[in-house]
Amino acid sequence: MEFINILDVDIVESNLTVAQVNRENHELTSENKMQLFFLIALVCIILIIAYLNLKEK
After folding, report:
1. Does the record's keyword annotation contain Transmembrane (predicted)?
2. Model pTM?
């Protein structure tokens, strides 16, 4: 019975680490989404400035 209990504890610990890794991956993806949003916004601003400069000429 002790052997089974040790296995149960190991399984619970591994599940916790998997959940922790999944949470960290989710945080990374949300951070990447923010970086992607700012990159797209920056590209849009550059395109608008370029368009306005061409329009003036």
Report:
1. yes
2. 0.50
| DSSP class per residue in 1-57 | -HHHHHHHHHHHHHHHHHHHHHHHHHHHHHHHHHHHHHHHHHHHHHHHHHHHHHHH-
Instruction: Find the angle CA(9)-CA(28)-CA(39) to the nearest 5 degrees.
Output: 175
Please give the chain's pLDDT, 57 residues, in tens.
Answer: 455 565 666 666 777 777 777 777 777 777 788 899 999 999 999 999 999 999 987
Distance CA 6, CA 49 (A): 65
d(CA 8, CA 14): 10
